[in-house]
Write a structure and sequence with these properties.
By secondary structure, this protein is α/β, with parallel strands linked by helices. The chain folds into two domains: 84 residues, Urease, subunit C, domain 1; 291 residues, Metal-dependent hydrolases (TIM Barrel). It is 32% helix and 17% strand. The strands form four sheets. Strands 1, 2, 3, 4, 5 and 16 form a six-stranded mixed sheet that branches. Strand 14, helix 10 and strand 15 form a beta-alpha-beta unit. Helix 6 runs parallel beside helix 7, helix 7 packs across helix 8 and helix 8 runs parallel beside helix 9. It starts with 7 loop residues before the first helix and ends in a 19-residue tail after the last strand. The structure holds zinc ion.
């Protein structure tokens, strides 16, 4: 080789700056402190640079300027456990017209975006069409990382069939299975077929039910679900497609089996024990958990005069109470072993419930500072979403404000730490 030609990238014309957000104090999604007032240089939907001066070689004649007036700018918020298509209770959804469900999901997606959540991970439900319409700019809503159907064994957390189903209908898929909310599988072949079907439709990650759940009426909480070989098959099929598996699991047994099979994130984990949390830390698994939904707010005693609960309702309530009882210990263990705690709300059903989404911030103050919680909802969640690799379809990282990242940003009026409440005795929580 003779004299080296300059690298191709050096010859490329610098991207024109289209927006400059000036006089901004930046929370970058990772560090707890804010920058001094500075400028964010943006080209279309990506951040080019953060600093007082224009990046070298930048072309700026057509740039718009937005003076943030010394306000705080944070990355767009991320919720990694939502169900955008679960717009009502599961039994109600079974009897709703699918177009009506989508109409409600469309309105809800816009409301989610206006709460500041610019990205969400869907952990069960047919949101592929909703995502496409948002990505195309047809409607307004957050970026969606869809899982498609929850892959579950018969008698698993994704098996929402009634007691009457089965013998009467020959085990046919119910409405939730037909519409892509859940996929019922038994045996490695069926697991592979269901996982690959979600990937074909555009799933950015796979969600398995690895143990009992609260909302499934016939499902005991302590049941361990999917055999090792079924779970490993799902992990391999996802990895071959460049992505990963996350599991619904509360108990040590179901968590351990899933982690040994190679899953990269776990949902809930409220009944975890110390050895299992240690394992989670060693393997670098994300704990995508919820404080608000499991703080007891949804299990208040019935109003006087209401009819006595049925046996099925008592069963579900007892499961919810058991999970709630584990919340504090789980969070303390997560802190002790410094695991990556992601921010997800799992608030689904009517819009009145989904609107409570920001309460997750305040519900975490018992264990974390405001800056830590804000990092969980931005930088940590962005790191989790990176596990989808190129399946994400977005060209830059999310949840951080840095060169190359997607320019999802919020200009916040007032002090964002006070969105939750900062502690005067711990000044590091206040900005
Ligand atoms: Zn969920």
């Amino acid at each position: 080789m003779g004299s080296a030609a300059p690298p191709v990238a050096a010859q490329a014309a610098p991207a024109p700056i289209t927006l400059v957000v000036s006089n901004a104090r930046v929370f970058d999604g990772r560090r707890p402190e804010l920058t001094a007032p500075t400028s964010i240089w943006i080209s279309d939907d990506r951040i080019v640079a953060i600093g007082a001066d224009a990046p070298a070689g930048a072309v700026t004649p057509t740039a718009r300027t937005l003076d943030a007036g010394g306000r705080v700018v944070i990355p767009g918020l991320i919720d990694v456990h939502m169900h955008p298509l679960v717009v009502a209770g599961f039994d109600d959804i079974k009897s709703m017209d699918a177009n009506y469900v989508m109409a409600r999901a469309t309105a809800s997606a816009r409301a989610t975006l206006l709460r500041g959540f610019t990205t969400v991970r869907d952990l069960g439900g047919p949101s592929f069409g909703l995502k496409q319409a948002i990505d195309e700019g047809v409607i307004e809503g957050p970026r969606i990382f869809p899982s498609g159907a929850i892959v579950s064994q018969t008698a698993g957390h994704g098996d929402f069939r009634s007691r009457a189903a089965g013998a009467a209908d020959g085990g046919r898929p119910d409405v939730l299975e037909q519409r892509g909310y859940t996929a019922r599988v038994d045996g490695v072949d069926q697991v592979l077929a269901a996982v690959r079907e979600q990937l074909r439709l555009g799933a950015t990650q796979i969600k398995l039910a690895a143990g009992g759940g609260i909302s499934t009426p016939l499902n005991p909480l302590d049941s361990v679900q999917l055999l090792d070989e079924e779970m490993r098959a799902a992990v391999r099929a996802a990895a071959d497609y460049g992505t990963y598996v996350t599991v619904h699991a509360y108990t040590p047994q179901s968590l351990q089996r899933a982690i040994e099979a190679g899953v990269r994130s776990v949902e809930h984990a409220h009944l975890v024990d110390e050895p299992t949390m240690k394992l989670i830390a060693e393997r670098g698994v994300f704990v995508s958990t919820q404080a608000y939904a499991f703080s007891g707010v949804f299990s208040r005693p019935a109003a006087p005069g209401s009819p006595p609960p049925t046996a099925a309702q008592l069963f579900v309530r007892a499961k919810a109470e058991r999970v709630q009882a584990g919340l504090d210990r789980m969070m303390l263990l997560a802190k002790k072993y410094r695991v990556k705690v992601a921010f997800g709300t799992d608030l689904f059903g009517t819009e009145r419930v989904v609107t409570l989404q920001p309460r997750e911030f305040g519900a975490r103050l018992k264990w974390f500072t405001s800056a830590e919680i804000l990092s969980q909802a931005t930088g940590v969640n962005g790191e989790l979403l990176e596990l989808s690799g190129t399946r994400s379809g977005y060209p830059g990282p999310l949840g951080i404000l840095a060169p190359g990242a997607m320019a999802d940003l919020l200009v916040v009026e007032g002090n964002p730490a006070r969105m939750f409440r900062c502690s005067k005795s711990r000044p590091e929580t206040c900005w």
